[in-house]
Amino acid sequence: MKQHLIFDLDGTLIDSAPSILHCFGLAFSTTNTPLAAPLTHDVIGPPLMETLKRLSGSEDTALLNTLAAAFKQHYDSTGCLQSVVFDGVPAMLQQLQAQGYQLYIATNKRFYPTERIMAHLGWQAFFTGVYALDYFNPALKSKAEMIGRVVADNGLVVDDCLYIGDRLEDGMSADANQMDFALVSWGYAGDVGMRKPHWHSCAKVQNLAGLISTL
Hints:
Helices cover 42% and strands 15% of the residues.
């Protein structure tokens, strides 16, 4: 039986795409930087600098830092608070907590806006720990490394853990830690067709607790 549930955030618990894409658009327009790639949902998920490299088509550190500062100014002030919770998620989190599961967040989103979102939604009581790449010093380089640190720092047993996310990267990060993975498809779901045979899958928020109970 799984005891520890580690959740991705964007596309899994919240729909942050409209506000993130809006803030990316503002970052590029206010710095007069042309977009090299379209602002579509598939840019949501990777770390900020990785996404900015893709959107700008540039590796120039000064440009990327300027874009990052502009994005953070917009997103950290108001954009992050415009995230929308997927229907049924609060009830699902409450149910899982009541059933005795320990819940964690492991997200590529930076820690500062993640904390703001948790406070805004009143979710702090649900989660034993909230982790981001830049929660650690020095910042971690990958979600796989972050999941490993969540396990190690909390003294967890991998077999007792399940990672839950909406992207191929999430599943690969779980695999890198020999951790079971559940791919949810109610969010952005762009990677569902590429899921691995050994991954679990869930299409409805209301069905996730039932799936977890069978693992």
